[in-house]
Amino acid sequence: MVSETIDITPEDIFGLIALSGDAKASYHQAMLLMQEGKVAEANEAVKTGDATLKEAHGIQTKFVTLEAQGKTAIVGVLMVHAQDHLMNTILVKEMLGYMMNMQNEINQLKGMDQK
After folding, report:
1. CATH of the domain spanning 5-106
2. Which end of the chain is more exposed for a tag (fewer CB within 10 A), N or C?
3. Which segments in the chain show pLDDT lower than 50?
4. Residues identified as active-site
């Protein structure tokens, strides 16, 4: 029995890289906005990042699902690179909540108005 191979296209790989990068940029923007005391804008940047990350995660989920169905993936350096981008973005998202809470406390201690 010959196993079916998963077709990982360059569009999927570069989509994963680009979407992960866009989400991470939104999360960094959120932190910068928090440092300025712009809480509402920071929260919007997080929502934008979350939506973009969801798209990136959808690409990964497609491949995980196909592999779970018994199909084989041939993974090259670019796909490893794309997965690395996604993993780092997920880590940034996980840490962002803690950092935004800390920044909010710092802003309150500084007496900064919430904008």
Report:
1. 1.20.58.80
2. N
3. none
4. 81
